[in-house]
Amino acid sequence: MLLNSALKNYTYITLISFIGLLIYIFINVPNIPTADEWDLSYFVERFYENKLTISDLMIPHNECRMPYPHIINLCILFITRWHSFTLISFNLILLLIFYFTLRKYTYRALNPQKTNVFGIGFLLIFLVIYSLKQYENIVLSFDLNYYLSVIAAFWSLSSLRTITWKKVIISMLWAHIATYSYASGITVWPIIICLIWLLSNDSLQIKLRYTLAVVAVFVLNLVLYFNDYHPASGTVINKSTNPVELIPYALAFLSNNFTTSSTTAIVLTIIQLISVGSSIVVLFLNDKAKFYKSLPIFAYGLWAVIVGFMVAHGRASLGITQALSPRYCTLSFPFTILFITSIIINIEYISSLTKIKNVQKLSPVFLYMIVAFFSFYQVKFIEMANQRNQKLEKALAFIKASNFEATEVKEMLYPDANQLKYKVEIMKKYNLSLYR
Asked: Which of 59, 66, 274, 383 has the greatest count of CB atoms below 10 A from its CB?
């Protein structure tokens, strides 16, 4: 499928672009941990003192339990002596595997007649996944928790294309990984149950067995998740209980990949919801087989909407008046993926309605315009990425000079000078890459 003859040229473009991104990061990003990546030093110290336990890996970070991202990061860290580029590269390669898995699954589900439209649509999805707007995420290896959560969620739902015990068990395993990578993974479980009831051709009794099995494993995950649960955050907040107040936040969140304006994002989300709704109607009325094959993709986009309300709830409770942040681009891209897929479906349907060649040729124009816009949209973030790299270079120089109070250090690396000094001492003590 990687070199599917119909999509081969698009695959080459994707791979060349990906290699270019890796080269850019390798040349321009200094080898120094940033932000939450410094928190891995706790596990490093515990490991070398022979005290590292599963309980350590399960310690909540920003209200999330993340043992699987921690285990992966630590394995890479010890092999490479904490070379940040290898941690970043792993994340990007994992995303590339996800991208091609998603493309393969969607191609088989839709069996598109307009392969060029499908190819262009998935180039846009590639641009969204590696958008320079979230450059901060791209070069922050600790954000494996975001990546692993959204990827495991897709693999969980896409496993249910056919419903068998084997597929359900695989789906639950991926849901478990999503749950223990980022808190939003918890919401995958109810969607699994919905897909079982929508896609299974088995008897009511067997559907109930599937459901009971999923519920039992879900409850077990919740018990383990909240057992001895002590979030690190000491801030007590009064969370909003009015769902209406959360709607603007959630709508803005869902278009985070396309704009930096909350108002524009809300309008764009409404347009996207219309496109998604029309694609559902089109498939259901005209090709029920494709509709049911595509249900896991629609469910994946629905999951992003739920995540949007979770993020909105958290930000509203803190008094934050907008929901756009580069850190949340990853969490919102499942919905963006669904939107782009809906455009592909709608274009196919419009083309099938008429035999007029000019109409058929013009039907993909809207998609091409979005690709062009999004490509130019990236240009504004290239300069920001270069500026960030320059600040990181300055911060690295200050760290090597043992200046932990510098503005660049607090802004780019870690806000607490005393804690950062202690974490740097751990790197020195165990001869890790920055001090080898």
From this structure: 66
